[in-house]
Design brief:
Structural class: mainly alpha
Radius of gyration: 23 Å
Helix content: over 70%
Number of helices: 8
Largest sheet: none
Order of helices and strands: HHHHHHHH
Number of domains: 1
Distance between the termini: 84 Å
Length: about 200
């Protein structure tokens, strides 16, 4: 996939997402995968740069690690992690899409996820306001599910809400369990040994 074609798709999904998703229905993996790779490369590069600047400003760079090593680690972490999360989320979302009536196939759901990621991947790295572009991506993915799976807006919305909220609820519950466990262990360790307070003469 040529750079010009990728840039044209980026502009389309940002400016006119509905028509762009409809035009992307014939796209195969030979188009969607290079587009995903391009998004991941840009996101990983900008995340590495911003992270390095932030760490440098805060003086948190370890003297044991060469200066060039940190952005390299962050770059490949964001690149590989982004690819893994995209695959897992596409599979997870497609489960709910299928249960709600989407029958156009996993590839169509994956395309909706990939193309919808456009603003989040390109601008989500911006400090303080990056989350707004990530929210924008979620909205685009809902539109993408509706168009690629030819579902109603309501069903596409429900599928996305379930796919996003279930993992969040699980993470919150795990965090609460971890906090309670740590707090309980701390309380036990702070208690007097054998229930007896030290005696002073």
């Amino acid at each position: 996939m040529m750079i010009d074609a990728i840039i044209a798709k980026v502009q389309g999904f940002i400016v006119n997402p509905v028509e762009s998703f409809r035009a992307a229905r014939p796209d195969g993996t030979d188009v969607a995968v290079p587009y995903l790779i391009a998004l991941l490369l840009v996101h990983a590069a900008m995340t590495a740069i911003v992270s390095l600047i932030g760490i440098s400003v805060m003086g948190m760079l370890s003297p044991m690690m060469p200066r060039f090593a940190m952005p390299v680690v962050i770059f490949f972490g964001a690149l590989i992690g982004g690819a893994i999360v995209t695959i897992i989320f596409s599979l997870w979302l497609h489960l709910w899409v299928y249960l709600l009536g989407g029958r156009k196939g996993l590839i169509e759901t994956a395309k909706a996820v990939i193309y919808g990621m456009t603003p989040g991947m390109l601008l989500g790295w911006i400090p303080f306001i990056g989350f707004l572009f990530c929210l924008w991506s979620i909205v685009l993915q809902i539109i993408g599910i509706r168009e690629m799976q030819e579902m109603s807006s309501g069903k596409a919305l429900v599928a996305m809400i379930i796919a996003v909220m279930v993992p969040l609820i699980v993470l919150v519950l795990l965090a609460m369990y971890f906090f309670i466990t740590v707090a309980s262990a701390s309380a036990i360790s702070a208690a007097p040994y054998n229930g007896h307070y030290p005696q002073f003469d």
